[in-house]
């Protein structure tokens, strides 16, 4: 984006200072041609304070960008499976796992069980389960006998984090292609907001109810 912009008559590009940055009235005198943002939210919410010439460029959240973080990578097999299903006209829901805190596992298990049960009734949907950089979620959910061998279901793609802390399928990629997400509170909620995607959050409750 930067190289393309700068090669055309010296365009001025605003590099975001945060994930919820906006040039606003105070910076409008700089006459930005391109405003880099996580998604469309800033433009839709604040564009009336921008100069008409300022156009948004949606690039996702910087903290989830594989070009900035060397330990980010996509699991090729998972991505191929996701994109094959999407190309066939299926719709994707995502369940985001929480941090590894003991009190969060019972409500997360309930969220996952409820989402899988809802999707089971619709043959054109599938669910991607994305733990938070560790497979701890699967060990905790294993105690939910009502779910059975849920990972073997044809409408489920359970991402596996065999190297803790190494991202294999960034949130931004999943959010860009999903219809909605379910999970606890976290940065995925914010990224869904700026990409105009629904995210159903179980919060502020942090114990099963």
Short characterization:
This protein is of the alpha/beta class. Helices cover 29% and strands 15% of the residues. The model has no long low-confidence stretch (mean pLDDT 78).
Characteristics:
8 strands, 15% strand, 209 residues, alpha/beta, elongated, 7 helices, five-stranded parallel beta sheet
Account of the 3D structure:
The chain is of the alpha/beta class and about 210 residues long. Helices cover about 30% and strands about 15% of the residues. The chain contains seven helices and eight strands. The protein is elongated and about 60 Å long. The termini are far apart. The model has no long low-confidence stretch (mean pLDDT about 80).
Uncertain regions: pLDDT < 50 for 5+ in a row? none
Radius of gyration: 19 Å
What's the overall geometry? elongated
Work out the helicity level. 25-40%
Spatially, the strands of the biggest sheet line up as 6-5-4-7-8
The beta-strand count equals 8
Q: What integer is the average pLDDT?
A: 78
Please count the helical segments.
7
How many strands, which pairing sense, and closed or not: the largest β-sheet?
5 strands, parallel
Helix/strand order: HEEHEHEHEHEHEHE
Which class best fits the helix and strand makeup? Answer: alpha/beta
Terminal Cα separation, in Å? 47 Å
Strand content: 15-25%
What oligomeric state do these chains adopt? single chain
List the helices and strands and how they pair.
Elements: H1 2-6, E1 13-14, E2 34-37, H2 41-46, E3 55-58, H3 76-87, E4 91-96, H4 105-120, E5 125-130, H5 136-141, E6 156-158, H6 171-177, E7 180-183, H7 187-194, E8 199-201
Parallel strand pairs: 1-2, 2-3, 4-5, 4-7, 5-6, 7-8
């Amino acid at each position: 984006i930067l190289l393309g912009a700068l090669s055309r008559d010296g365009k001025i590009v605003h590099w975001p200072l945060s994930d919820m940055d906006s040039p606003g009235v105070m910076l409008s005198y700089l006459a930005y041609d391109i405003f880099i943002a996580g998604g469309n939210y800033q433009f839709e919410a604040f564009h009336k304070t921008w100069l008409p010439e300022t156009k948004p460029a949606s690039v996702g959240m910087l903290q989830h960008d594989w070009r900035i973080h060397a330990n980010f990578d996509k699991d090729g097999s998972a991505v191929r499976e996701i994109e094959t299903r999407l190309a066939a006209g299926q719709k994707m829901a995502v369940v985001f796992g929480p941090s590894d805190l003991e009190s969060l596992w019972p409500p997360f298990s309930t969220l996952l069980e409820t989402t899988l049960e809802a999707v089971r009734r619709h043959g054109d949907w599938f669910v991607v389960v994305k733990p938070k950089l560790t497979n701890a979620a699967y060990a905790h959910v294993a105690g939910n006998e009502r779910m059975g061998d849920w990972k073997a279901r044809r409408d489920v793609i359970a991402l596996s984090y065999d190297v803790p802390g190494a991202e294999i399928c960034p949130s931004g990629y999943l959010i860009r292609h999903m219809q909605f997400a379910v999970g606890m509170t976290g940065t995925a909620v914010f990224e869904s907001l700026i990409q105009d995607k629904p995210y159903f959050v179980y919060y502020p409750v942090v114990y099963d109810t």
